[in-house]
Amino acid sequence: VQVVESGGGLVQPGGSLRLSCAASTSPSIFSIYAKGWYRQAPGKQRELVATITSGGSTRYADSVKGRFTISKDNAKSTVYLQMNSLKPEDTAVYSCNVRNDYVSYWGQGTQVTVSS
Hints:
Blueprint: E1 3-6, E2 9-11, E3 17-23, H1 27-30, E4 34-40, E5 47-52, E6 58-60, E7 68-73, E8 78-83, E9 92-99, E10 104-106, E11 110-114
Parallel strand pairs: 2-11
Antiparallel strand pairs: 1-3, 3-8, 4-5, 4-9, 5-6, 7-8, 9-10, 9-11
């Protein structure tokens, strides 16, 4: 399974971006995976940003609660991350993870830079 992220870029503080993560698997298989977005800033460890289970339950890092929203479209085998009210400290490479109890797939990541 290939996982490809898109939607990153340069945005001013307070701006918005929507990241997409497309998986090369059928919708029926995609639907049973848990999905998540993670980020890694320069010199820091990778951290969890948001996850969504196959049942639709979501979880967010405290630093992004109320600003970011994770969602999925199983028919398109795609998971999204809507990011609003972006801050400079959100600057990082954002990566998508699709997994079940047996396998875990990662994308290459997409750069998000928040700067004026």
